[in-house]
Give the backbone structure.
Amino acid sequence: MFYIIMIMLFLIFIALFYFVVEKQKKQVKECSKLLAELNSLNEIYKNKFLILQDVYKFKNECSSLQKYKNNCNNDMIFSFMCNQLRGYENIWKKLCSDALYNRKIYQNYINYLKYIKIKNLGLSYEEVPHEFLFMSKNRYLKIEEKLFFDMQLRPVIDLKVVLTVYYISPAGRNRYFSDFSMNEKYIEAVLNKIEENKRFEQSAKYQRQLMTNSKRYDILRRDNFRCQICGRSQSDGVKLEVDHIIPVSKGGKTVDSNLRTLCHECNQGKKDKYEQ
């Protein structure tokens, strides 16, 4: 019986304590000039911040444990992110720009917070009614500062990306996960690398690198191993070559539609001429 009474008294004490705390918070909210100015400031700034996610997530599922281990090194992670963001560069550039914009606006917001705090902290203590529930000034300041902190706007001001590399065994018994966090500077480096790769892919050097032995054979077979100008084949004693219809020196690409089979003589006669 004694323990039951003690438990009941403890619960009553907790309920009373909670009631007092909530009542004091309500009194501070109703009287505080600091919190009133914060509310006004929040109304001004809440629509100025651009919307960003807290974290942008990517996943890389590996088909084997060895691939999982290989994909967890820095070079492979960077290469994976280049592949993931390619084609979406404008979107990610805007996200980086939005984060920078939010940081600038947030700095202005913080400066105003400092100003109104210095100006108004504790100023309204005398206006709190004490006839029902007395509150010391130190207690008032603690509550006011806590509410001031809790009520502040906290927009996303930094771009954060997390890549999860993982492998799950076929039976599901073994699971391997690794998370890699990336900041805004890392994403900007990825975007710069994508732009660099695109410039290189437009170069004649890159287009010539795409002309592999396998690609040559595919074009020769498509054209029935015959010169597309004179019609001769190897049985006629000619050497067959694969030609860029629009030369790479003039912006031609190593794609099937821009390739054809020519004999050595026809190809030499054409050289870098562009036949429309």
Remarks:
- The chain has a mean pLDDT of 89.
